[in-house]
Write a structure and sequence with these properties.
Distance between the termini of chain A: 25 Å
CATH architecture of chain A: Sandwich
Strand order of the largest sheet of chain A: 1-8-6-10-4-3-2
Number of domains of chain A: 1
Structural class of chain A: alpha+beta
Protein name (chains A, B): Phytanoyl-CoA dioxygenase
GO molecular function, one term (chains A, B): 2-oxoglutarate-dependent dioxygenase activity
Number of strands of chain A: 10
Helix content of chain A: 25-40%
Oligomer: homodimer
Largest sheet of chain A: 7 strands, antiparallel
């Protein structure tokens, strides 16, 4: 469950790390069921694709679904995050990007931390993103594309565009890198998109430049992203804070479960 | 220059065939220069990206640029087409899709022959498309995606949508497969996108289902597509024929050059 030193080093070097098939098929089946259930819960935490009925993203499913409440404390995910950050972390943001079949749209090239600095006045990039593949990810269904090592260049672009699309949740379009910025970075860093079976996990830095293409396939590509933050690095809102489904308010340090989340869930139910 | 029996069989089986690095770097450099030159020629043969100034496609460059006039008779391309079709073929359509950096947009899933049957009353799918990579093609810059073997299912969708976007050149959106049609075909056939260095060539069937994703990269992805047609299979227009830059009028059988197109061009210039 712990990362090896080599894995730690690779994360620091590349800004991301793929953990192939970290979760099992039965676990993924349960997480998909929980997502389907959560997609039927009305409310602002459910964001639709532009001009379509389909769900583009759902926020904070761990507040509503026991499977996800367990998953955020699953030792296979939480312990690596603690190794990379610090023992005391909490879930700052939790979202599932659905990327539906046929044209779930692309995400512009961006760095997550730019958004969080602007929107939440988050003091430092002391986060780790944990992306869990809820579907097989291949080159056709809009995988996330990283510029390896780009997190080590710091923030490329600190200002939000004047023509901001979104109020509550920052749209990557609002903080997208310019063509010039990206050309330079890609020439230097190249592009990599980790792929793998459902249940694979990618840890990635809040400062790594990434984007994703549309989903060209007839199958959905659901991706869970949990962002853990250092508990000493809380948002400092000047004005109205963002809603609690976008920025979670429970900042108590998380303690890892003793067992994978499904075992813990079955134990609790027994 | 001739295809082997194995290559012929693979084309018949899959509906496409990749010829890796069929053209050399010097040849590609000259073809790019000729394309740049042709992009500056004003006229309706130059199609812009929707809402952008950039060129999406240019038609019939072989009418204006000697490099392309030679290329259509290059033995490395024409002889394989003759093997697959018949000795007497001509260029029915010639286009270069530019797919500019950052969001050169996707092409919907479609079968070429549907368009040609509708627009030109072309009697039979007796064509071979020859796609020449004018840039390296990778998973990030919007490669063409094929459903292997889908050409053997015949035409999935014969009717053009009522909400047709385009008049002169048929837009793939107008003849796109439905989500249901594509789901079934992908489940059966899978998806493949041939990649390779600039100078690589893909031969593909007019009936194969294909599409392509947007270009996520900061680099252009220029793709030349020459469609050869059997000279006994000419368009039979009921009304006004499409313009001669979209459907070429010179239907004389092409004879292969004795040498690669650049050698022939230098010879002619000497």
């Amino acid at each position: 469950m712990r990362l090896t030193q080599e894995q730690m080093d690779r994360y620091q070097e590349d800004g991301f790390l793929l953990l192939d098939s970290a979760l099992g098929d039965d676990e993924i089946a349960r997480l998909r069921e929980a997502f389907d259930r959560d997609c039927r819960v009305p409310g602002p935490q459910r964001v639709a694709e532009e001009g379509r009925d389909e769900v583009r993203a759902v926020y904070a499913s761990h507040h509503r679904q026991p499977e996800y409440a367990g998953l955020v404390r699953d030792p296979r995910l939480l312990v690596p995050v603690q190794q990379l950050l610090t023992d005391d972390v909490y879930v700052y943001q939790f979202k599932i990007n659905a990327k539906p079949a046929f044209g779930g749209e692309k995400w512009s090239w961006h760095q997550d931390y730019v958004a969080w600095q602007i929107a939440d006045n988050l003091p430092a990039p002391l986060q780790v993103n944990v992306a869990v593949f809820l579907d097989d990810v291949d080159e056709f269904n809009g995988p996330v594309i990283f510029l390896p090592g780009s997190h080590r260049s710091g923030l490329v672009n600190k200002a939000r565009k004047a023509t901001a699309k979104s109020a509550q949740h920052l749209d990557p379009d609002d903080i997208a890198l310019s063509e010039e910025q990206l050309s330079g970075l890609v020439a230097e860093r190249g592009m990599v998109s980790p792929k793998g079976r459902a249940g694979s996990v990618v840890l990635f830095s809040p400062e790594i430049v990434h984007g994703s293409a549309p989903n060209m396939s007839p199958f959905p590509r659901r991706l869970l992203i949990m962002t853990y933050n250092d508990t000493t690095n809380l948002p400092r809102w000047d004005g109205e804070p963002r809603p609690d489904y976008v920025v979670c308010r429970d900042t108590d340090p998380l303690r890892a479960l003793d067992a994978p989340f499904l075992d813990a869930l079955e134990g609790a139910a027994a």
